[in-house]
Amino acid sequence: MPEDHQKYLEWNGDRFIEWAHKIGPHTVTTVKSVLASFKVEQQGYKSCVDLLKLADKYSVNRLEAACKKALSYTPHPSYKSVKNILTTGQDKLSDQPEKDHESSVENQYGYTRGASYYGGKHHDE
């Protein structure tokens, strides 16, 4: 067997899961999902390597956040979905949108036009 092919003999699912544990729990879940998405586990090894190598390009924290975001969209994320999240910077966005507290308290029934919209004049005049 050629030398460049022999390195693939060392790969197995447990090795990728162990590598993912060093990053975080969401990454572990994502790696397990990638491995389970193929009929033959070995077919998912390249995707796992590519997924885990994203930590080198972006960072361990960003990869973990991207995996968390991908898992919020689907229970079976792929390498491509995680990479798209990192590329577009969606992992940097907060999980919960900020609410404008003043407007929700002021107008709890939606957008309503006030007196100023209709001219703002008193009816008695």
Summarize the topology.
Blueprint lengths: L2 H4 L6 H9 L3 H12 L8 H13 L2 H14 L5 H10 L12 H6 L19
Q: What would you say this structure looks like, in words?
A:
With 125 residues, the protein is an all-alpha fold. The protein has one domain (3-93). It is built from 7 helices and no strands. The protein has helices at residues 3-6, 13-21, 25-36, 45-57, 60-73, 79-88, 101-106. The N and C termini lie far apart (97 Å). The relative contact order is 0.10. Mean pLDDT is 82; it is low at 100-104. This is Transposase.
Short description:
The protein is mainly α and 125 residues long. It is built from seven helices and no strands. It has helices at residues 3-6, 13-21, 25-36, 45-57, 60-73, 79-88, 101-106.
Low-confidence stretches: 100-104
Radius of gyration: 25 Å
Order of SSEs? HHHHHHH
What is the tally of helical segments?
7
In percent, how much strand structure appears in the residues?
under 5%
Essential attributes:
125 residues; mainly alpha; 54% helix; Transposase
